[in-house]
Amino acid sequence: MEAWWRFGDESYTEAVQRSFLQSYLAAFQRIEGWFSYDAGLMFMAYNQLIRGAGIAGDVLEIGVYHGLSSIAVAALRGPGRKLYAIDLFEELQSNEAYGSGASYRKFFEQNIQSFYASLDFLVTIAQASGQLKAEEFPRTFSFCHVDGGHSSEETFDDLKFASDILLPGGLLALDDYFNPQHPGVCEGAVEFLRRQEGVLKPLAIGFNKVLFQRLPSSLDLNADFSKTFPTVQHLDSTMWKTPVFLFGTPLRSYFDLYASGPERLVPLGAAGTRATFSPEKAKVSAGPGKTFALPVTVKNTSVDTFPGGDRVLGLSYHLLSEQGKPVQHDNARCYLKTALEPGREAKVNLRIDAPPGPGRYQVEIDLVWEGVMWFKDVGNPTCLVELEVS
Length: 390
Ligand SMILES: C[S@@+](CC[C@H](N)C(=O)[O-])C[C@H]1O[C@@H](n2cnc3c(N)ncnc32)[C@H](O)[C@@H]1O
Known about the structure:
Blueprint: H1 20-27, H2 37-52, E1 58-62, H3 68-74, E2 83-87, H4 89-92, H5 104-113, E3 122-126, E4 141-146, H6 152-165, E5 166-175, H7 183-195, E6 200-206, E7 209-214, H8 221-228, E8 235-239, E9 242-247, E10 275-279, E11 283-286, E12 291-300, E13 313-321, E14 326-328, E15 334-335, E16 345-353, E17 359-369, E18 373-374, E19 383-389
Parallel strand pairs: 1-2, 1-4, 2-3, 4-5, 6-9, 11-19
Antiparallel strand pairs: 5-7, 6-7, 8-9, 10-12, 12-16, 13-14, 13-15, 13-17, 17-18, 17-19
Helix pairs in contact: 2-8, 6-7
């Protein structure tokens, strides 16, 4: 069975390693851009569905800027396929909003490289997208993200170009369709609908993107979506006289970002219980501000060994009020000193710091993988102990 910390083709090499999706989430703190993480998850979810139907080709993005969205789009390509990245870059861009003068092509390449060891799959084209000719490209594309020029002409041309190179059943994401600051996008898209009826079918709206499917296709992707991701909430709406899914709640709240990879999203809790906690007592008491130890048996119920060592896997807790409201999320850790094999148990003395205020509290026991995840955040059950401070 595949270890739950493996993703893509990369194997687990260090004791602490974030998954691709966790590293990508963290990248939003450092990479400039206009993309949202949840748009990336929406792309991945639908791409997983078409991939399941055998559609996995090259991918393309018009308007890459520093590469924030390109990192997600690159992950959607089929095995051995390419990412075509199109942008005016600074050589051609005169728009101050994009920081003309700054070399953002360099940033783009550096940022892509921070996620993908080799850039062999990357084809960068510094050109106005309107000059691209579909005849000069193979018709092998399964995903296109259109996020370049936002005038009606540019939008129309980009939709025409992208839909000409997409495989039947492939996906096209359009940025800013509903953004009142860019009315040209909607205008260009509606013009496309008028002149090219029956080429693009809207599927989903969310996170400032509209996702279309290239017709003809016999796939019912929204029905597949409901079957594959039954816990993900959406509203039903209609666009271009077609039923569409409307996403509002951040998609990250539905998925186990550790067990998931861009090619396969795993719903929260679906990876099963990875660890159980059995405290020696269900009720404890302490003086205000006092520190004490509660022995807890931790059992590894996953199929993989938990790594041992300092600052790797720590037993800890979240302090809650009597009613279950968060009081203090991060608390002292007691690290597993040695690796814990699947099915094995370890007794750990959980250090608890009683809060200064007298009253009743709950201690919610959880495991933290430093820099990677709290087990609770990926759906692992925690364990509650009552704490009386008096
Ligand atoms: C909104 S930014 C893209 C943001 C990026 N996708 C992200 O998620 O961070 C738009 C980009 O499109 C590029 N662009 C604008 N007009 C273009 C055109 N006609 N052809 C190609 N690229 C264009 C700009 O240089 C800019 O980098």
